[in-house]
Amino acid sequence: VASASGTSIDFTSIPAGVKRITITFDGVSTNGADLFLIQIGDSGGVETSGYKSGVMYYAGGGGGSTTSTSGFIVGLSGGSGTNTFHGSIILTRYNSTHSWVEQHGIGFIDSNTGASAGGGSKTLSAELDRVRITTTGGADTFDAGTINIIYE
Fold this sequence. Notes:
It is built from no helices and 12 strands. It is mainly β. The strands form 2 sheets. The chain has a 7-stranded antiparallel beta sheet with strand order 6-5-10-9-8-2-12, with no helix packed on it. Strands 1, 3, 4, 7 and 11 form a 5-stranded antiparallel beta sheet that branches. Strand 8 (84-93) and strand 9 (99-109) form a beta hairpin. The chain is globular and about 45 Å long.
């Protein structure tokens, strides 16, 4: 999916029984400085709370870390809005009670160069059937790149 507009990108109709989802970013950016959030959901909708997620980042000679309970957090804190992000996020179902773990490695270039890595977990009440990519503030607009998902 071209990620050149909107404040979120949804992938829906993911079939039952999926055990692994890989989300790829190729040159993805937004018009703001918020971090990316990956949110998952079931037939009841996308869930926006109850995540255990953390990210570490390094850029321009410094680094830091942050956490989120609103989604799997990905990216660079305090980014300039002019970075393009490249890499993958992997979601893996780890038991029969709809529990998922996340891990990612993302590099960014352009106005700043660095990398972000992190992980987390989230349990849904039913079968996962959707994934949303948005930002921590929910208002930044995607303005470049491509996002794809592959499920197994």
